[in-house]
Specification:
Layout (H helix, E strand, L loop, with lengths): L1 H44 L8 E3 L10 E11 L6 E8 L1 E6 L2 E7 L7 E4 L7 E11 L5 E8 L3 E6 L5 E2 L2 E2 L1 E4 L15
Antiparallel strand pairs: 1-12, 2-7, 2-10, 3-6, 3-8, 4-5, 4-7, 8-9, 10-11
Length: 189
């Protein structure tokens, strides 16, 4: 019994130190996880395209083949627009039209910045048709689109399943960040 009383304080002290070590390790890990989630959330919220989704013709590309198609969507404007801006990423090639008139065109690949077009003078009251003509020599690609409209807010119109390709909803790859595009950014001025 006497030996037990001599050893007991040493064992209790060892267990306390070991428990404190594990408690601090768990707390540090939890804090790191919370920070990582917070950073990811902030990055998502600060995304230049908001809730826009990567869209395309299809995900069924068994063998490489050239494709060319148009994704379309109508929007109704009921008030005077003072500012409207389109941000688009079309990999590998795109042309964006508003009411049948070319707004801009480009070729992009992962890592390139978003292309930006001012369409403030083209959005009067009424129904407008947005169209994105896309082309790919391999059949694989992605379109990410967001449009700010005064009175409707930032990212008022975004690419998603509401866009139509050949009479059916566009195929949705998913939201940024997605391989290989990540979070497309604006070009530095």
């Amino acid at each position: 019994m006497r030996a037990f009383l001599i050893i007991l304080p040493a064992v209790v002290d060892f267990v306390k130190r070991r428990s404190l070590f594990w408690l601090l390790l768990i707390a540090a890990s939890a804090a790191g996880a919370v920070r990582a989630v917070d950073l990811a959330w902030r990055r998502l919220e600060s995304s230049e395209t908001g809730r826009a989704k990567w869209i395309w013709l299809t995900d069924d590309v068994k063998t490489p083949h050239a494709v060319r198609f148009a994704a379309t969507r109508s929007i109704a404007i009921e008030e005077t627009v003072t500012d409207a801006r389109i941000r688009i990423f079309g990999d590998p090639e795109y042309r964006v039209l508003l009411d049948g008139r070319v707004v801009g065109a480009g070729r992009q690949s992962p890592g390139d910045p978003l292309d930006v077009y001012d369409v403030s003078d083209r959005l009067g009251r009424g129904v407008h048709v947005l169209s994105i003509e896309a082309a790919s020599p391999t059949g694989i690609g992605g379109i990410l689109f967001a449009m700010d409209v005064s009175g409707h807010g930032r990212n008022a119109v975004v690419s998603d399943a509401s866009w139509s390709i050949d009479g059916r909803p566009a195929f949705v790859w998913g939201e940024p960040p997605m391989y290989p595009w990540g979070f497309p950014r604006l070009a530095r001025p």
